[in-house]
């Protein structure tokens, strides 16, 4: 067994023994963990960390058990109090990506990865023996999902701004013409926040049957509320799409949304009807309830205001980091700002996500103008060789 896969024993204080543990001790341990993870205890800007502001309206839902059988559109003889809420959530997201529930179907998944798996499974049903074309800037979850499904992947070059290179896609699909092309576009790449041009990619891959799936888990909600982004959704020619609501909305659990066109017409003259089939049978309705509660509290106007505020802070961060001399970059309309990877003490202090020589922030949740100023000051100090 390699060192990377070697098993290490659990913490002795956390081990589950034969006898029940002392309840008071476990309660104290959980309270300590709660304090350690609470917002405000440490800067944490690489990932969302703003649950406190929404927990008041969501906390009662965490005490409910809600198990659902089958999909949101399936007939059931059991009373299901959340099926209508899930349909309302799907109607909202379908409208964001340019479709109605008459044109698209889907479900709320327990995570963006589950939604992505569902989207890829549905996509390959309409193609003979598809290869999956993935940008080198795509999220690791896309690569992992293809591995789990046993799908052949072809990596496509990315341009300097992080978007998929349509010329390289054209070359790659031409070499494999006739086999069918399943192209995974990205709306919000992990490092740059870049958004692929769906219309351009669809045209580039048209050497046979083609299906465009959009991984919009990171950037879909923001893209839907700005005119600065390229064509990215079902409204622009995509066949299926994966979205997520928890990072921007501040939910305490992950939530994914999978949507696909009900009827798809590939170059063959036989339309493909996509059935309502899920990856799982029994599933929790919690994600749909949380999404519905949060979105209802905001409304479409409130959601647009949230996105606008995050974009304003991203633009402010771009200017402040430029003044700090760390060569920042930002894709138009994105909530992601990348910059030169700073000294280790800055990365650790702010829990920054990084890849190679670039680091990033995403302007959701705890990212305020004050936080940007403080981080910019640390970036400037690090460039000058000042230690923490």
Low-confidence stretches: 46-51, 265-276
- Main sheet? 7 strands, mixed
CA gyration radius, whole angstroms? 22 Å
Helix- and strand-based class?
alpha/beta
Assign the CATH superfamily of the domain at 60-295.
Type I PLP-dependent aspartate aminotransferase-like (Major domain)
Strand percent estimate: 15-25%
- Overall pLDDT, averaged? 83
Classified by CATH, the class of the domain at 60-295 is: Alpha Beta
Walk across the major sheet and give the strand order: 2-8-7-6-5-3-4
**Do you know the CATH architecture of the domain at 60-295?**
3-Layer(aba) Sandwich
Oligomer: single chain
The end-to-end span amounts to: 39 Å
Distinct helical segment count = 12
* β-strand number: 14
Please name the CATH topology of the domain at 60-295: Aspartate Aminotransferase, domain 2
What's this entry about, in short?
By secondary structure, the chain is an alpha/beta fold.
Task: Tell me what you see in this structure.
By secondary structure, the chain is an alpha/beta fold. It has a domain at 60-295: 3-Layer(aba) Sandwich (Aspartate Aminotransferase, domain 2). It contains twelve helices and 14 strands. It has helices at 23-37, 52-58, 83-96, 112-124, 140-149, 166-175, 198-204, 220-223, 246-249, 286-324, 344-350, 369-383, and strands spanning 67-69, 104-109, 131-135, 153-156, 181-186, 210-216, 240-244, 256-261, 263-264, 272-273, 282-284, 336-340, 353-355, 358-362. The strands form four sheets. It has a seven-stranded mixed sheet with strand order 2-8-7-6-5-3-4, sandwiched between helices. Strands 12-14-13 form a three-stranded antiparallel sheet, with helices on one face. Strands 1-11 form a two-stranded antiparallel sheet. Helix 3 packs parallel to helix 10, helix 4 crosses helix 5 (140-149) and helix 10 (286-324) packs across helix 12 (369-383). It is globular and about 65 Å long. The chain starts with 22 loop residues before the first helix and ends in a 5-residue tail after the last helix. Residues 46-51 and 265-276 have low confidence and may be disordered.
């Amino acid at each position: 067994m390699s060192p990377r896969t070697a098993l290490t024993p659990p913490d002795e204080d956390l081990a589950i023994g034969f006898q029940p543990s002392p309840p008071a001790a476990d309660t104290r341990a959980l309270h300590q963990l709660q304090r350690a993870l609470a917002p405000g205890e440490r800067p944490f800007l690489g990932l969302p960390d703003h649950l406190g502001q929404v927990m008041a309206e969501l906390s009662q839902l965490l005490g409910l058990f809600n198990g659902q059988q089958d999909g949101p559109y399936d007939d059931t003889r059991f009373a299901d109090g959340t099926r209508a809420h899930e349909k309302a959530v799907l109607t909202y997201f379908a409208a964001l990506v340019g479709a109605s529930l008459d044109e698209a179907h889907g479900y709320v998944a327990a995570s963006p990865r589950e939604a992505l798996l569902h989207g890829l499974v549905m996509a390959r049903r309409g193609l003979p023996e598809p290869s999956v074309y993935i940008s080198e800037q795509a999220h690791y979850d896309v690569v992992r999902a293809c591995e789990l499904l046993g799908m052949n992947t072809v990596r496509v070059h990315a341009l300097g701004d992080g978007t998929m290179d349509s010329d390289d896609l054209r070359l790659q699909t031409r070499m494999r013409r006739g086999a069918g092309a399943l192209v995974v576009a990205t709306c919000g790449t992990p490092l740059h926040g870049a958004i692929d041009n769906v219309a351009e990619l669809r045209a580039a891959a048209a050497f046979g049957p083609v299906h465009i799936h959009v991984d919009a888990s990171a950037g879909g909600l923001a893209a839907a509320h700005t005119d600065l982004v390229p064509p990215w959704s079902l409204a622009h020619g995509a066949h299926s799409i994966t979205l997520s609501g928890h990072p921007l909305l501040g939910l305490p659990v992950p939530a994914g949304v999978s949507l696909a066109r009900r009827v798809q017409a590939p170059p063959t003259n036989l339309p493909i009807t996509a059935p309502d089939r899920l990856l799982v049978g029994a599933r929790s309705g919690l994600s749909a309830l949380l999404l519905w509660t949060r979105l209802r509290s905001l409304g479409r106007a409130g959601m647009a205001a949230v996105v606008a505020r995050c974009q304003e802070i991203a633009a402010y961060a771009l200017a402040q980091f430029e003044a700090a001399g760390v060569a920042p970059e930002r894709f138009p309309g994105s909530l992601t700002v990348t910059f030169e990877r700073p000294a280790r003490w800055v990365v650790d202090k702010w829990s920054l996500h990084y890849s190679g020589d670039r680091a990033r922030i995403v302007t959701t949740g705890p990212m305020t103008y004050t936080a940007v100023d403080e981080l910019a000051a640390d970036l400037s100090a690090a460039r000058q060789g000042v230690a923490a």
